[in-house]
Amino acid sequence: MQTAIAVTSADLVLPPTDQHTPTAALMPHPDAQTLDAALADTQVLLEQHGYAVVLYPASLPVVHERRLHAVRSVLETDRIALLKTALPPLGVAVLVRQLRQLSLCDFSAGVVASAARLLAHYIHAGAVLGSVARLDRVPVGLKSHAKSWVPGTQFGVVAHPDPQLVRIGHGDLTGPQFGNHLLVARGQLQSDWPTAALAPAWHCQAVHEAPLPEESPRWWGTRKLIEFAAYLPDITLIYQLVSSVKREKCTWCGLEIIGDRCGFCAAPLLPPENRTGVSGVLSQGKPMNQGS
User: Which structural domain, as residue segments, surrounds residue 48?
Assistant: First the structure.
């Protein structure tokens, strides 16, 4: 039975890369759906798929996050994984699509859920900004704040996996050390820097365009932005990456997981010596931080 992937906003569902990738279910804001309707829809989703993995951004309004937990609590089910991620909106959409692809593979629901933390590590998410005056997701120095008021100044920012900030034309952003595709979503900023400069510097094999998520201007602190995300595009490599991690049984709920934490019950894997990392696919056998 295919694990369902769910999101909290329809614009986090990117077009599929092939005809087989399933879409994602929507868990609407409480203002858009009553609790009774949310419970009924979720119950149907579980009946059809067995398990549901809900991925949502850390910036989600508290009332919406409470609704997610309320649905799981009222249904008294342990078959819903609520996964919060610190990725920017476009990065969240990329990760959602990768989980949608994984849901078709021969992985259990527990592995699909815990794979989200692993795959997030390989998403390099950032933006070109016309101002960093209201940016609170990445450390911004006083000089950068001051230069935000100079007309025409643009900044390149990476929020994940490691925060970076440079003034366009006065520095470079460190990117992924693996073959990747670049997804670009344009807001109210005119610039060809992501495609003309960043993509070649990051050795991107292809560049794709997507609509800007509705949450992006609030997340980045300005509407004058172009958001981007570099990611692993090949489901074969993603499958190999997830498969390379040792699988364990969750010591609390018994589901099969990878990494050091269960995506469904959030219990850590015990004992510590049984925690495993990636070996041999992209890390040359070195343990890897799987946090997002």
Answer: 4-122
